[in-house]
Design a protein that fits this description.
The complex is a heterodimer of chains A (103) and B (505). Chain A is mostly helical and 103 residues long. Chain A has a single domain (3-90), classed as Orthogonal Bundle (Helix Hairpins), CATH 1.10.287.3510. Chain A has three helices and no strands. Chain A has helices spanning 3-24, 28-52, 60-90. Chain A is elongated and about 50 Å long. By secondary structure, chain B is mostly helical. Chain B folds into two domains: 1-136, Four Helix Bundle (Hemerythrin (Met), subunit A) (Up-down Bundle); 279-499, no CATH class. Chain B has helices at residues 3-7, 14-20, 22-40, 47-71, 87-106, 116-133, 139-157, 164-195, 200-207, 214-230, 239-246, 249-274, 291-311, 316-336, 342-371, 382-385, 387-401, 407-419, 430-455, 471-489, 492-502, and strands at residues 76-78, 83-85, 281-282, 287-288. The longest helix of chain B is centred in the middle third of the chain and has 32 residues, at 164-195. Chain B is globular and about 70 Å long. Chains A and B meet through helix 1, helix 2 and helix 3 of A and helix 1, helix 7, helix 8 and helix 11 of B.
């Protein structure tokens, strides 16, 4: 197995774990953690493709990852703010109990 | 291959970049100006004046950006597709700014927040994100501007802090949205791995082959999940009804209009440029794997889900949300008519749809402010209380339903005839167009249900409705209705501009 295959397997595993967490957990904060895991799996992909790709001297993959880390941080900030605003109304972060709209 | 080598010195100066990106820079500066004005000068004033002054600064920014693009039509391509300025992109940007302008104007009379500066700054930042989104052919820029738009829109959805539904809608929007962003990023990372580049054209050049790589199929599906969420296509539509119902009306209108236009433009660009050579075929008896059959299935599903779920809604906002999902299905057919003037038909449809839905949400906002609800029964007898508003709503609803001579009809006709044009890649998609036309007939039922409440149903007892709509609202909604009517009667005006902007050279 080449190193690239190993990294891709790990990142696919990370993505699957994150997705499973985001879909099955009912706590909004844990769902957010799952989503962050999915984003980081993609980052690992970029780094692996950059490192073992045909042109590691072009820094494209690294630059992409730097931007996406920044965006993930902004996303976490927005997400936690929204969770706080939900908590003010419901006094819970359980997604099953946040269901005033249906149809 | 890497853009930093081209950027690193030769040919590219920051002054030139600033010159090309001036409209976006103006919008970002206007956002900062609104924030600063609200923070330093307006704190002590009455809310009404703060809203008016903030809105005025934002409008000046939008008009300045439009004026810049009209006065100085630039062309340029920075760093191999990272930032592209071409006539078509500029036309779409002007359309987006017009939609933003109307969003700002219908927010004028709102009372859902005391944070006027932050609200308008976020609207402008979302607009800047959309403008970057339509002027790039590089997946890195697409991801960044998609996120700039989305993060601003999440906040705009949550802006009514007293309202439980607003917070709940925002959380759902955020969770679905960031999950689909993760899918997009993973798909883009696979595309980068396959091609070693982030430019859409180089990705297309490296994926061309007799057979589809399994990794490419995975990348395609993941990218489509992310963009399909953005345009609210089924089955990634679950957030839309809650957001349209719970968000403050101007925010919902903005999500339904501006972000749809930008989302469809970038979807069409990613598919037609980035996945060029992986089209496949969605013809009835000639199926070939690729993105065309994938989007054809999404289009069919969106039309069926949207139109049938809208039939049973009692809240007008949810009804508009499901109708938006159905319209996303129609517009996906426009994406499938890529090549030739197919893109022009898609843009005509999405821009006129944006104006129409903005107007419809404007009317809902006025009615909701005065009756306290957005159920169908709250619209009962609207024509006798506020005839002007009722006529505007009639124009918007009939245009959504696709009744001639309104813009909605021309848009559908133009788009469907583009798909079926001889030699079009979408020729095999007759089944989809037949489905679309059949479901348009279904949609008439729920659109006319709204009009029946407005014009036929007796109004509930007197006293529930005291004032008429504020003058500014009436003028803005009247202007939107007039635009929908004129674009329907004289479609050539916009169509010729779009087709002219697409012509090479």
């Amino acid at each position: 197995m080449t190193p690239l295959n190993g990294y891709l397997l790990i990142s696919a595993l990370l993505f699957a774990i994150g997705l499973a967490g985001a879909v099955t957990r009912r706590n909004a904060i844990v769902v957010l953690i799952g989503i962050e895991l999915m984003l980081n799996a993609a980052n690992l992909n970029f780094i692996a493709f950059w490192r073992f790709g045909p042109q590691p001297e072009a820094q494209t993959g690294v630059i992409f990852v730097l931007f996406s880390i920044g965006i993930a941080a902004a996303e976490a900030a927005v997400g936690l703010a929204l969770i706080i605003s939900i908590y003010r109304h419901y006094k819970t972060t359980d997604l099953d109990r946040i269901d005033s709209m249906k149809g | 291959m890497g853009y930093e080598r081209e950027a690193g010195g030769r040919g590219m100066s920051y002054l030139e970049l600033l010159n090309l990106a001036a409209p976006e820079a103006i919008i970002a500066l206007a956002a900062l100006a609104v924030l600063a004005a609200d923070m330093f000068a307006l704190r002590e004033l009455e809310l009404h004046f703060r809203l008016a002054i903030s809105a005025m600064i934002s409008c000046v920014g939008c008009v300045a950006a439009i004026g810049w693009m009209l006065a100085l039509p630039e062309h340029g391509n920075v760093m191999g597709g990272i930032f592209i300025v071409d006539p078509l992109g500029q036309l779409v940007k002007i359309g987006l700014l017009v939609l933003t302008l109307f969003t700002i104007l219908i927010s004028l009379e709102s009372n859902f927040t005391v944070h006027a500066g932050e609200y308008f700054a976020l609207v402008l930042l979302a607009t800047a994100g959309m403008m970057f989104l339509v002027s790039t052919a590089d997946v890195l820029m697409i991801f960044i501007s998609l996120e700039l738009t989305s993060l601003s829109l999440y906040m705009l959805t949550a802006f009514d802090k007293r309202d439980v539904q607003s917070a709940e809608a925002a959380l759902k929007y955020f969770l679905f949205g960031s999950m689909s962003a993760a899918f997009t990023l993973f798909g883009l990372s696979l595309l980068y791995g396959l091609s070693g580049s982030t430019s859409l054209e180089q990705i297309a050049a490296s994926i061309r082959g007799p057979r589809l790589d399994p990794l490419l199929v995975l990348a395609l599906v993941m990218t489509v999940i992310g963009l399909g969420f953005k345009v609210a296509a089924a089955p990634f539509h679950l957030w839309a009804p809650d957001v349209y119902q719970g968000a403050p009306a101007p925010s919902a209108a903005f999500i339904a209009s501006g972000s749809k236009v930008a989302g469809f433009f970038v979807l069409a660009r990613v598919m037609a440029t980035g996945f060029k050579g992986a089209e496949g075929s969605g013809a009835w008896h000639g199926y070939l794997p690729g993105w065309v059959p994938l989007l054809a299935v999404l289009a069919g599903l969106s039309m069926v889900v949207g139109n049938f779920a809208a039939l049973v809604q009692t809240s007008v906002r949810r009804l508009l949300a499901y109708s938006a999902i159905a319209h996303a299905g129609y517009m996906l057919i426009g994406v499938l008519a890529y090549g030739g003037s197919g893109l022009a038909s898609l843009l005509y449809y999405s821009l006129t749809y944006g104006l129409t839905t903005l107007g419809a949400f404007g009317v809902v906002a006025v009615v909701q402010q005065q009756t306290g609800g957005d159920r169908l029964s709250d619209f009962a007898g609207l024509s006798r209380r506020s005839p002007g508003l009722a006529i505007c709503m009639m124009i918007f609803i009939l245009s959504l339903a696709g009744i001639p001579p309104l813009a909605g009809f021309v848009g559908k006709f133009y788009m469907f005839s583009e798909v079926l044009r001889p030699g079009s890649p979408g020729m095999g998609l007759l089944w989809l167009v037949v489905l679309a036309i059949a479901l348009s007939a279904v949609s008439l039922y729920y659109y006319l249900q709204v009009l029946k409440q407005i014009f036929v149903a007796p109004s509930p007892g007197a006293g529930t409705w005291v004032s008429v709509a504020p003058v500014t609202q009436q003028v803005v909604l009247g202007a939107l209705a007039l635009a929908v009517l004129l674009l329907g009667c004289f479609p050539g005006w916009l169509v010729q501009r779009l087709a002219g902007a697409m012509a090479p050279g």
